[in-house]
Amino acid sequence: MNFNFRLYGNLDYIDLNTLKEVEGCIARTENSGSEGYYTEVARWNPKVNKFQRYAFCKFLGGEIEDTDALTCANKITEELNKVWGENSSLIHYLEPWSEE
């Protein structure tokens, strides 16, 4: 299974498998506030010496067969954190990614 994540800052896409190769990231499931759930990804930015929101993928349910939105988002978040080995509850409050 592969999903496309939107990158903060320019809204280009990065696919799940490519995202797994990016170092210095953490992921968390977030409620969208209206419908569905997100897998939010933050990345350590050494230029500003802090984590910033890096990418996100929204789930409405059904993206993974026979699962609701929360289950989909949780599965992808768990898959990413198995690679990166961390989790954080702070992602939602972080600034968007910036190259500056």
What order do the helices and strands come in, and which of them pair?
Layout: E1 4-7, E2 13-15, H1 16-19, E3 25-31, E4 37-45, E5 50-59, H2 69-84
Antiparallel strand pairs: 1-2, 1-5, 3-4, 4-5
Characterize the structure shown.
The protein is α+β, with helices and mostly antiparallel strands. The chain has one domain. The protein has helices at 16-19, 69-84; strands spanning 4-7, 13-15, 25-31, 37-45, 50-59. It has a 5-stranded antiparallel beta sheet. A hairpin with a 5-residue loop joins strand 1 (4-7) and strand 2 (13-15). The chain is globular and about 40 Å long.
Beta-strand portion reads: 25-35%
* Rg: 13 Å
Structural class: alpha+beta
Main beta sheet: strand number and arrangement? 5 strands, antiparallel
Name its key features:
single chain; alpha+beta; 2 helices
In short:
With 100 residues, this protein is of the alpha+beta class. It has helices at 16-19, 69-84; strands spanning 4-7, 13-15, 25-31, 37-45, 50-59.
